[in-house]
Specification:
It comes from Pontibacillus chungwhensis BH030062. Belongs to the Gfo/Idh/MocA family. Pfam families: GFO_IDH_MocA, GFO_IDH_MocA_C3. Keywords: Oxidoreductase. This is Oxidoreductase. By secondary structure, this protein is an alpha/beta fold. It has 2 domains: 118 residues, NAD(P)-binding Rossmann-like Domain (Rossmann fold); 180 residues, Dihydrodipicolinate Reductase, domain 2, CATH 3.30.360. It is 35% helix and 29% strand. The protein has 9 helices and 15 strands. It has a 9-stranded mixed beta sheet, with helices on one face. Helix 7 packs across helix 9. The longest helix is centred in the last third of the chain and has 19 residues. The mean pLDDT is 96.
């Protein structure tokens, strides 16, 4: 599959372009930038074509699929334009900043017979399928509670797009979305009630830290915390009536040599399972299989819609309770 990259964000340079190079049957043939960095990036990665506008790249008939790492508020515009140009689309998370926009984006892609996948790369690492298998086996009993955490800190004295409310900033949209998405991915139920409380920065008017508590339709309780103020944590714990599962590198196993660690504790003792996988490359390969084999994408897009609906509701009722 021949890929074009719409933008030169760090996530594209550090993670996705190298992942496409590592993936089977994939190559980057074009990159575009609105900031004049396209030639620099093209030279660094030996990409044949460099465009000074995103539309020029979309007009390139050789490009079959595009990756969109643009700021959150630009996702909708360029997903729609890419769909109209007949390109399959891998869009950084969150795909949209409202449920209505996400619905429109998915419907437009369906109308133009192209695939839209939100780039929650973590879900393609094999550790999470193993977690599902352990839950299904009954080893930890009936699931009662899930706790998920994702945090990191950065210098807030300098401009950072994560602190810009007009561009979809805030800890929930940036990292909290992983915790909520993984609850949907692993527990097989939608939220019924959600309560949230946040520390909102008065200068930037975005949440620097948020705590979300949910009750799912199946009765499982979920707690998600996220922060821009605390050291790196990317983990979840699933607690059942007979034991618990702890996954300490849930969302960034690539920072642990691609190794996912699963710890299971029951009354019979503790054991550890290690699952290895290159989650960014696996995401590219899964995307290509969906496109080439016409595999169903409904379940993945359902999680996109439900997760955006959930976070949108949380922001609208910040420091309050809402029924979803």
């Amino acid at each position: 599959m021949r890929w074009g990259i719409l933008g030169t964000a760090n996530i594209a340079k550090k993670a996705l372009i190298p992942a496409i190079e590592r993936a089977d049957g994939a190559e980057v043939v074009a990159v575009a930038s609105s900031s004049g960095k396209e030639k620099e990036v093209a030279k660094h990665f030996d990409i044949p074509k460099a465009y000074s506008s995103y539309q020029q790249l979309l007009n390139d008939d050789q490009v079959e699929a595009v990756y969109i790492p643009l700021p959150n508020h630009l996702h909708k515009e360029w997903v729609l334009k890419a769909a109209q140009a007949g390109k399959h689309i891998l869009c950084e998370k969150p795909a949209a900043l409202s449920y209505r926009d996400a619905e429109e984006m998915i419907q437009t892609c369906q109308n133009h017979n192209v695939i839209l996948l939100e780039a929650f790369m973590y879900q393609f690492h094999p550790q999470h399928e193993r977690v599902k298998e352990i839950i299904a086996s009954g080893e930890i009993g009936d699931v009662e509670l899930m706790k998920a955490s994702f945090s990191f800190s950065f210098d807030k004295s300098q401009y950072n797009i994560r602190l810009d409310p007009e561009k979809g900033g805030g800890a929930l949209w940036d990292v909290g979305c992983y915790g909520t998405h993984s609850a949907l991915h692993l527990l097989g139920s939608k939220p019924d009630h959600v309560q949230s409380i946040s520390n909102v920065d008065e200068d930037h008017e975005v949440d620097l830290a948020s705590l979300v508590t949910m009750k799912l339709e199946n009765g499982v309780l979920v707690q998600v915390d996220c922060s821009f103020n605390t050291p790196l944590r990317n983990e979840y714990e699933i607690i059942g009536t007979k034991g618990r599962i702890t996954v300490p590198h849930a969302y960034r196993p690539d920072a642990n040599e691609h190794k996912g660690i699963i710890r299971i504790a029951t009354k019979d003792g503790e054991r550890e399972v290690v699952e290895e996988g290159d989650q960014y490359a696996l995401q590219i390969e899964a995307f290509e299989r969906i496109v080439e084999n016409h595999e169903p994408i409904d379940a993945l897009q359902f999680k996109t819609l439900e997760n955006i609906k959930l976070i949108d509701s949380i922001y609208q009722s910040q420091n309050g309770t809402v029924r979803i």
